Records
---
Amino acid sequence: MLSIAHGATGAFIASKIPNPLISIPLVLLSHYIEDRIPHWDVGQGLTAKKKSRKAAFLQELFFDFPLSIIIVYFIFQAGHPFDWRVWMGWFVGLTPDFLEFPYLFMDARFFPIKQLAAFHGLVHRSTPHKLWGLLPQLLVILLVILLK
Ligand SMILES: [Zn+2]
């Protein structure tokens, strides 16, 4: 999924479960579970070479990544004192994608980057249809807003 969904989910879990020893593994698990749902993300078309690396990178850098920070801020932090758990959850929620970055964008093909990317690819389900691919992510964010 997009960082906006993973980040919001991670922040949600980490804000609800105060013990990081429990929340961190759950946030990581949530990333792979969410990626299992067919979705559209900025990497869509990258492996099939239908999209350039540069286009995907720029979409992530200027749209998805900053928006994930803004969304998490407005859902959890606006008008509230700084909560490190929220931002830890955001970070851990994005970590599997951070770890895949060198594989996708820098041709890193060595242990453990290669194996992590292979696992990520195994659970990852995407769709080229933007509407159907964005809808589950909007629902995730809506659920986080309703349940927080
Ligand atoms: Zn992912």
Note: The chain has one domain: 3-147.
---
Amino acid sequence: MIKLQNLVKRFGPLNAVNSISMAVGRGEVVGFLGPNGAGKSTTMKIITGFLPATSGTVEVCGFDVGEKPVEVQKRLGYLPEGAPAYGDMTPASFLDFVAQVRGYRGAEKQVCIEQIVEKTSLKSVLDQSIETLSKGFKRRVGLAQAMLHDPPVLIMDEPTDGLDPNQKHHVRNLIREMAADKAVIVSTHILEEVEAVCTRAVIISEGRLVADGTPEQLIGRSSIHNAVRIELEPAELDLAKPAIEALDEVGGVDILSRADGRASLRVVSKDGQPITVAVGALMREKGFNITEIYTEKGALDEVFRQITIGEDGTEVNRG
Ligand SMILES: Nc1ncnc2c1ncn2[C@@H]1O[C@H](COP(=O)(O)OP(=O)(O)OP(=O)(O)O)[C@@H](O)[C@H]1O
Ligand SMILES: [Mg+2]
């Protein structure tokens, strides 16, 4: 439903988007991740027809956004970065305006506004001017205008930014519920959000697509994926460590802490395969007194840093 081919956007000497190609199908919720200035918002602006591409193409539901921007915009909802809206309007008048622009009239318009007000919990502030609303309510107004016409394609730039934990939860549920028959792209800096709502995650760095996979696949790239954490008595450490290191499937053993009568070890899997059973069996066989053992999954934020920080350890920063 969304197809990008060799998309490029230059601002003067800067390649903000540098040859991105990808496709998003029905039922997919794709998370756009990447450092500040990576090109996420710029890519979204091009998909929605808000900015022209320097080269490359975008198709939404079969329409080329350069050639048929109105056909594309009919089929998509867009929450721009920062959720801008007309500050001197009220949510009621703003949503009425958006509904009219979207072609709704009369009773049908009323129903569609009521439904979206309900979904985004805006009832209590409908008649207050948007500029006086709190950040979270402003964002909900932005979400409401994006989703009002129930579009098949949704592009949302940091939809949960600035929301309280309850509202974050609510918006994530909303996205999940709607996603079944839509193609959704959301950008976010909240990596746990990716695991909560996205079926797929794409990492963008310096305008390039540098990783693309399910959240699980990306986590699988973590250097501590399938590592085993063991807690045992410090006195046993000097015997246990070499015994574990001698296992074929073990890549290394790190002592994480050694205090208060407990020692904590991390056993790293040599090739990322599960090793917990083998390590547990060894500990039992040797009679070590372990108080805790569990498998570490690895974390998306570690993979994110691994992928987006340069070889020399400097952060990519083009803001
Ligand atoms: N209109 C513009 N003119 C010049 N440079 C721009 C313009 N818009 C964006 N840029 C630059 O393009 C790069 C990508 O910006 P973009 O807003 O797409 O990043 P982003 O990935 O959305 O970052 P963030 O996580 O901070 O929102 C940045 O270096 C930015 O300064
Ligand atoms: Mg952005």
Note: The chain has eleven helices and 14 strands.
